[in-house]
Amino acid sequence: MTTGWSLYVIFLVVLNIVGCAWLLWWTSKRRGDEARNDSETTGHVWDGDLTEYNKPLPRWWIILFWLTIVYSVGYLVWYPGMGNFAGTSGWTSAKEHDADKAEADARLAEAFGRFDGMPIDEVAGHEEAVAFGARLFQNHCAQCHGSDARGARGFPNLTDGDWLWGGTPDQVLASIVDGRQAAMPALGAAIGGDVGVTEVAAYVQSLSGIKADPALAEAGKAKYAGVCAACHGVDGKGNPILGAPNLTDNIWLYGSDFASISEGIRNGRNGMMPAHGPIIGETRSRLVGAYVWTLSHGKDAEPPDAP
């Protein structure tokens, strides 16, 4: 907060306190004949005989108001509330948050510390850990992958056996802890403009058994080998090290229709999985990983109901 805004806040706070104190003093003071005239009214009458008298507040009530003002002054001395003045207690909301977080982390460490360093496929054998991982998933992962973990356009389905970056326990954990950055460059110009895009798209469709024009697919094969095979492989089966998807199966992150494939070739794709290690920590990342592992390796391979 700048000095100007700080002074503005202080001015408003002091003005309100002084104003309340003056109003209390002025309205409770009796003067001359007014103090002795207990029959003075405000002039308000209801139902013909209900008259509102103008009498000062009881002394005990006035004392309570003064105590409230004194308390507010003491509060503003002890806690921050006067612009940039930090208060004599040194309290801040950040310290309060850090203390609460440390307390919560200590409880969680006590409850789940036994899973530190344990592979996620072993953690998946503990029902309590998987249930906790499911709740973490709903809080941190469902926004992209869906509450049922089946993903959406541009967000992978976590309940099947297809893994862009590899599906081993260590690879799944690395995706959660460190995140992933996928990049499909725009190749429209590199493969010959719209004609080249059409030919390569037809060839890519043919790799997975989708019906495509044979002549276009054959023409696109050479262009694919010269440009696309560097990431997706000569056989189109992809490369988990690069996050390059397998083009020979029936799983498509952005869609298998001709328009979607052409768009990806022409303009490229960019997918980003944020690193959750700094957010939820390494052990809780293992719990999430264990839950995700059960989705594609459980007995029924179906996600449980969202908590």
Give a brief description.
The chain is mainly α and about 300 residues long. The chain contains 12 helices and 4 strands.
Question: Can you put this structure into words, describing what you see?
Answer:
This protein has 307 residues and is mainly α. The chain folds into 2 domains: 3-29 and 37-78, no CATH class; 109-196 and 228-297, Cytochrome c-like domain (Cytochrome Bc1 Complex, Chain D, domain 2, Orthogonal Bundle). It is built from 12 helices and 4 strands, in the order H-H-E-E-H-H-H-H-H-H-E-H-H-H-E-H. It has helices at 3-28, 32-36, 59-78, 93-112, 120-123, 127-140, 142-145, 169-178, 193-207, 214-232, 258-267, 277-297, and strands at residues 41-46, 50-53, 180-184, 269-273. The strands form 2 sheets. Strands 1-2 form a two-stranded antiparallel ribbon. Strands 3-4 form a two-stranded antiparallel sheet. Strand 1 (41-46) and strand 2 form a beta hairpin. The radius of gyration is 35 Å and the shape is elongated. The model is unreliable at 299-307 (pLDDT under 50). It is found in: Cell inner membrane. Residues 128-208, 215-296 form the Cytochrome c domain. Belongs to the CcoP / FixP family. The chain crosses the membrane at residues 6-26, 60-79. InterPro entries: CcoP_N, CcoP_N_sf, Cyt_c-like_dom, Cyt_c-like_dom_sf, Cyt_c_oxidase_cbb3_su3, Cytochrome_c_Oxidase_Subunit.
